[in-house]
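Box 3.1. Reading complex inputs
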Amino acid sequence: MFVVKTQSTPPLTAPIGLFDSGIGGLSVYLHLAQQLPHEHYIYYADTQNVPYGTRSSEEIYRFTLRAVAWLYQQGCKLIVIACNSASAHALEAARELYPDVPIVGLVPALKPAVLATQSKHVAVLATQATLNGKLLNQVITDIAEPANTVVTKCFDSQLVPWIEAGMPPHHETAYSLSEKMRHFHQLGVDHLVLGCTHYPFFKPLLETQIAREQLNITVVDSGAAIASRVQQLLGIKQATSTHTVDYSQQHPTPKLKFYASQYDASLGALVQTLVQHPVELLNETLSQDTA
Ligand code: DGL
């Protein structure tokens, strides 16, 4: 049983909280860090329970509310549920529980794909939880169907574990991803929506294949739009994305604290590789009753 929580208004210097089942939300963090480089961030990765995409709605709901409760307790001034699967099953409840903190959720960027498609056929690559969830299906009903656009849904349960493992090349998952791209091309898909925050990490691989094989596919994701939404919600008018940030000079202390429910050295190394600036890496297993 959850009760609505409120706290005194966090100061402007309070951190922005991010949550994902694993490292996927770092793809959103990278956009935030670029657009809002002077903010401080706390990231929680539920690596003990990743992947979420094949879990039940009830489990995703429970894990997500527990993580949001923890970020709220850390005094975050805004929370990003940087996970499409978690947003699909718990965004509404999180907003109801914490009405005094803006909570931003992720939904696959289907709308811009529908607005841009020429072939009237787009594909959404996402987890099963996201493909079955209310948020995406609402966009299909409200935006894609009235525009007579076909939406092909696709999932591969191996993608998230492959990314969490650092995307080893020459892996069968990499080959089946290339095959999927060819298949989309044959179907006449001209926009591919990456509907999981883990997937932008393989966007450069897809774009290399698209150029090499001359596939007429544009790959879209939600990262930049989410960062703009956060900027808007915080009322930060001056975009800072044009600044080149020298972290060693301007941020002597790490501005990203990365907490994981299951931490090991290879995870730390992967996070450092993906983020490419100093990160404070910590272990934090949340108890069942955190929420
Ligand atoms: N990064 C996630 C998403 O956006 C979750 C992937 C998973 O844990 O299956 O859906």
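In summary: Residues 238-254 have pLDDT under 50 and may be disordered.
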